[in-house]
Amino acid sequence: MKSEERRAGRALLWNGVQKVLSKALYLLGTLVLGRLLTPQDFGLVAIAAVAVTTAMGATETGMTAAMVQASVRDEAHYDLAWTINVLRGVLVCLALMLAAPFIARLFEDARAVVPIRLLALVPLLSSMASPRLADLIRELNFSRLALIGIGNVVVELGVSIALAPSLGGTAIILGKIAGVLMLTVSSYVVAPHAPRFRLRHSAGRHLIAFGRWMFAIAILGVTSDLILKVIISTRLGVASLGLFSLADKLAETPNQLANEAVGAVAMPLYARLRTDPVRLTAALRSHVTALMCFLLPATALLVALAGPLEQRILGPAWAGTSPMVVLLAVGYLFELLFQAIVPLLTATGAVPRLFLVDALQYVVLIGSVAFLSGPAGLAAAGIARILASLVVVVAGVWAAPPIFKPIAGALTRTGLVLATLAVLGGTLAWWAAQWIPGAAGVVCGGALGGAVFLGAAWLSDGAFNIGIRESLGAFFPVLAPRARPQSA
User: Fold this and answer.
1) Residues 33, 172: contact at Cβ < 8 Å?
2) How many CB atoms lie within 10 A of CB 230?
3) Tell me: the pLDDT tens digits for 431-469?
4) Is residue 53 within 8 Å of 224, Cβ to Cβ?
5) Cα separations in angstroms, 237 against 22, 103, 229, 234, 377
6) Between helices 170-190 and 39-58, what is the axis angle to 10°?
């Protein structure tokens, strides 16, 4: 096996462990906070969060992605990247502090001023992280990143849950501040660097040229998210925004996990293999297969257990969450192929195409919510997500390099088999949740459905040769099918 594939396999394991554990902790923490807090609390935090992410996107420099994509880096590049990030953090923090009253008026809720100003400290602290974290990503050394990533989640959730009974929604923000502070300090332990303030443009001409498109994509995303949440808040109320935020966080968990665990490794791997089309094609095939193996059953389980989650864990204050979770989860599932296209376009430098696809997606999303929110209420956001996802996957396949389309076509049979098995697992999970009372039914249902899917997928691959072990075996030799002995 090629060394790049071996390193990618180790990176996937470490990154996968971190993301699965982090998302599991976040999911558990969200459910616990859902019991301790109200939709109003979540709504105010959502206003602060969208303000910060909008400001961060409006100043996105793309320095980390540019450092990963660049083949040549020296001290001047690291110092320039660190300087630009720190200046950005200071600018965002100050701007949010000053603009907090205006943002609160935009959402028609004056209580959001304090949460916005508190959360403004997060981009300032995160901007000071070591720029050499990009080296760990580029070299596929994800073990160190995993350790500090898990530590960040533990600190954030621990502080949030401990303070929630006394401080309400403010506890979530204080938890985020504590988590990012821990992450920034730890970054210098795992990726040592002595930063110097440097603004020499010639040292980073390539970084800035690459980063401008990443900036455009980021600002497009956060602006659209801001508009979406303003529409929901002003037309349907802050409580509806809080309900949407929680449902969206739950529904997007499988996609975020897949993107962060697999996509984060795929981008640097594709950047290293872009001159080797044969190995790049094999890596793409494995990427799409891995996404199907995870997203299809995860979405099926989420859809099947959405009702029991609302009734038995969240409680009556969150009535109406489960239909939103179902609509949003289905919408995010339709983006499966696009999840593989994004790192490919980024690694090959085709980010202008990615920008166009994203722009089309957000036009459909915002337009659908604005048009449907009157007759459909909050469900309009879920319907709009499905429509936007269908559009983005069609446009994404069009924008992808020529090597992608044959791969997508060849994996159609594999996708159909895995989708059938995912429905089976989801059905059994729902059945178990009906028979076993309380939160235990949700847990047992999820475990049963997941186990049935994994076992059935393994057996189906052996019986029908749908290519799961062959694709994943390129990175994990233990999964590769054994060669059959030849007859004499």
Assistant:
1) yes
2) 17
3) 999 999 988 999 999 999 999 999 999 899 878 787 788
4) no
5) 31, 15, 10, 6, 11
6) 40
